[in-house]
Amino acid sequence: MRIASLLAFVALASGTLASQEPVLIPAPFLAPKYVAPPDAPSSIVIAGKDEPGERFIVTGRMLAEGTPVAGASIYVFHADADGRYTRNGRNNDQNARQHGAMRSDANGRYRFETIRPKG
Predict the structure, then answer these.
(1) Which residues contact 20 (CB under 8 A, 6 or more apart)?
(2) Alpha-carbon distances, residue 43 vs 25, 76, 87 (angstroms)
(3) Mind listing the pLDDT tens digit for each residue in 60-89?
(4) What is the b/e burial string over 67-98, where b = at least 16 CB atoms within 10 angstroms of the residue's CB?
């Protein structure tokens, strides 16, 4: 099973990358609540230890034409082990219970711990 099919994320690069075309970020995810604070860590946990499901770690690296992008804002979200974004309410990605924001480190790297969502 491919990781790309299991979760979604939005990355907003700082500096000149933020103004490059084309814009690949859906409009709802341009809201400030999806942007990591400037001092956000590059590693987060989005599914607590009590969250049911198979645990796994996702790592990645933000690159622009092969060059690491430091300080990129990365927002991640996904469904739980039952395939639901919420336990009650609107079951969509904008209301995801499991989510978090981070910034890539000086080498463009990021990491988050979570559970494998139902896919």
Answers:
(1) none
(2) 22, 12, 26
(3) 999 999 999 999 999 988 888 888 877 776
(4) eebbbbbbbbbbbbeeeebeeeeeeebeebbb
Find all residues with CB under 8 Å of 100, minimum gap 6, and list them: 44, 45, 46, 75, 76, 77, 112
Residues of the chain whose pLDDT is less than 50?
A: 1-10, 12-18
Cβ contacts of 75 within 8 Å, gap of 6 or more: 9, 10, 11, 12, 29, 34, 35, 36, 99, 100, 101
Do residues 40 and 73 lie in contact, with contact meaning Cβ atoms separated by under 8 Å?
yes
Say which residue the tokens 């990491």 belong to. 111
Structural domains of the chain ordered from first start: 3-17+29-115 (2.60.130.10)
User: What three-state secondary structure class fits 15?
Assistant: helix
pTM assigned to the model: 0.74
- Residue 38's beta-bridge partner residues? none
**Token pair for 8:** 């979604």
